[in-house]
C-alpha cells in the first residue's frame, strides 16, 4: 500500500468506527456485528502501529467508546473507567499470559469471570447509602443516572451488615434478562416501535431514559465486579478477597466467578462456558480474565485504554448454514409488513431454528437473497436468529432474486414507504383483514381495555362472520345476540360473559382507551403521558405537532403519528361513536384538581417512583386540592406517599415517627 492509500484507509476506518461507536453507545442501535466492529478496530490498530506518524491521539483505538449525552449531568470519574483489551483467539490469550509472566514471574493467579453483555456502571456509596451512579462515558467522565439505577432491585440503596468502608466506588454491569427482553421487545413491536436487537441494547437504551418510572417498569439487573476505594490495597490483598467482601455487604456478585491457578484452568473455564452459556438466563459475550493480586496489578499497569492485567476472551457468535425455503410477509396491526425467512430446520446454540428475521426490504437487498440460497444464520446476543450472509458458491443457478412485494400480501393494496423509513406499510387500514383484526385484538388486550370473556380467536371469528369491522362495533354486539347464538362454540354463558366484559370496559380510564386505539408509536407509557398532559381527547385532537412534541420524552416521530391519526375523518367518527357509548375520554382527576380543598391543612412528602403518575403530577394534584408539600420528614408531616424504590432512610424515619405511609392509590382515594 502507498502511504497516501494508508492515510486514506486510516481516515475511512476512523470515520466508520466513530460512527459505529455513536450508534452503539449513544443510540443503542448498532448496525454491524461486534465481530465486524472488532475486525475494523484491529485493522486500524495495526495500520497505526506500522505508520505511527499517522496515529491521532483522538483515534478510536486510543479512546474508550463514549456514551455521554446532553440529557444528564456529566460527572468526572475519580478512577478512570477503562475498557478491556479483547481477543477471539486462544493464541492471543497465550501471548497475554506470556506478557504477564514476563513481568510477574510464575507466581500469580487469575480470576475468571463471565463477561456480561450489558453496560458498565459505577456506583458510589457513602456511609452505606447509594449516592451516585454514573455510566462509563468516555472513561474519564460519564452521565449521572442515579435515579434510574435506584430502580434496579438488585442494586442496594442501603447496605446490609457492617464492615463496609465509609466511602467507596463499585463497578459492574447493568443488563437485562432474556425473558424480560423478549416480553418487552414484543410489546414494542406490537406498538409499532422499533424493537431492540438484543438485551444489551435494550438495557443501554433504558438506563438513558429521562423517566425513572418507565425504567422501573423494565426490569434490569446488575452484577458487580470491581471495587475502588482509598487504601484498598491495605484492606484487601486480592480482587478475589474484595469480591467476597462486597458480596457480604449485599451486592450481587456472579456465582460463576472462579479463581484459577494455571492457564490450563483458564482454558477449561472458557471451554466450559462456551456451551454452558446458553443455559444462563442472560447473555454473556465472553470471559474476563484478571490478575488476582492488587500489588501485581499495579506492577502491570495500564495502557491509555485498558488495564494490562486483564483481558477479555470473546466468543464468536455461533453461526450455521442452512437453506432458505421461502420468505413470508406478515402484516401487523399498524400495517407494517415484516419479511420472515423460512429455513430448513437447523440446530443452533442449543435450539432448533426454523425462521429468521429479515427486518425489511433493505435487508433483503443487502443480502442479495435468491430462492434456495444457502445462508448463514447467527444467533449472537439476539434471541431471534438472523441471516448474516449468503454462501455464493452454493447458489443454485437460475434461481430468481427474492422480490419484496409491491402489493400487500393480505389485501393487494399498493404498499407505501415513508421517506427515511425502512419499513413498508399497507395503507388500506380499513380494508386489510390482518390490520382490522389486529387492531381489535389490541384494543381488547390485557394492557388496553382488558375485555374479559373475549380472546384473539373470538375476534377473528366475529370478524369473519361480519359481526365486527372496527373497534366501535364491539359495543353494538349486544344487539346481535341472535346471530351470536348461531355461531359454533358460542354457548349462552360465554356470550353473556363476553357482553358483560365489553360493558365493563366502559369503566377503563382514558389512558387505557387511548392506548387501545392503537395509534402507531403510542405504547402504554406514551398513552399515559399524552392523557395526563392533555387531559381530554378533544384537547389532544386539537393539539399541534409542536404542542405534542413538547411533552417530556415525546419526539417528533410520535407527535406526527398522533396528529396524522387524528387528521383522518374515519378515526374521528370512530371516537365519536365510542364517546356516545360512554367510554372514558378524559382524565377523571381533572375536575378535582381544580376545585377541591379535600387536602386542606394536610402535609405530604412524595418519595419513590409511581405507576400511574410522575412525582410532579402527584405534587400538582396535592397542591391543587389544598395540600402542602414538606421537604423533610418531621413531626409536622401528615402523610408519606411512598412509591417503588423509596429511599430506605425515609421509610425508617417515617416509621419511627409513626407517620402514615400511603400509596399512590390511597392518595387518589382521598380525593374521591
Ligand atoms: N457493533 C458495533 O457497532 C459496536 C460499536 C462499538 C463497540 N462495539 C463492541 O463493544 C466492544 C467495545 O466495548 P467496550 O469498550 O465496552 O469493551 P468490551 O465490551 O469488549 O469490554 C469492556 C467492558 O466489559 C464489561 N464487562 C462485562 N463483564 C465484565 C467483568 N466480569 N469484568 C470486567 N468488565 C466486564 C465492562 O462493561 C467493560 O467496560 C467492542 O469490542 C465491540 O465488540 C460494537
Ligand atoms: Zn393490506
UniProtKB/TrEMBL annotation:
Catalytically driven reaction(s): NAD(+) + (deoxyribonucleotide)n-3'-hydroxyl + 5'-phospho-(deoxyribonucleotide)m = (deoxyribonucleotide)n+m + AMP + beta-nicotinamide D-nucleotide
Binding site for NAD(+): 34-38, 83-84, 113, 136, 173, 290, 314
Entry keyword set: DNA damage, DNA repair, DNA replication, Ligase, Magnesium, Manganese, Metal-binding, NAD, Zinc
Domain BRCT: 594-672
PROSITE patterns: BRCT, DNA_LIGASE_N1, DNA_LIGASE_N2
Pfam families: BRCT (PF00533), DNA_ligase_aden (PF01653), DNA_ligase_ZBD (PF03119), HHH_2 (PF12826), HHH_5 (PF14520), OB_DNA_ligase (PF03120)
Cofactor annotation: Mg(2+); Mn(2+)
Gene3D superfamilies cross-referenced by the UniProt entry: 5' to 3' exonuclease, C-terminal subdomain, 6.20.10.30, BRCT domain, DNA ligase/mRNA capping enzyme, Helix hairpin bin, Nucleic acid-binding proteins
Positions contributing to Zn(2+) binding: 408, 411, 426, 432
SMART domains (UniProt xref): BRCT, HhH1, LIGANc
GO molecular function, one term: ligase activity
CDD domains in alphabetical order: BRCT_DNA_ligase_like, LIGANc
Active-site residues (renumbered): 115 (n6-amp-lysine intermediate)
E.C. no: 6.5.1.2
Family: Belongs to the NAD-dependent DNA ligase family. LigA subfamily.
Database matches in NCBIfam families: dnlj (TIGR00575), PRK07956.1 (NF005932)
Function, as annotated: DNA ligase that catalyzes the formation of phosphodiester linkages between 5'-phosphoryl and 3'-hydroxyl groups in double-stranded DNA using NAD as a coenzyme and as the energy source for the reaction. It is essential for DNA replication and repair of damaged DNA.
Protein name stated in the entry: DNA ligase
Organism: Olivibacter ginsenosidimutans
Gene: ligA
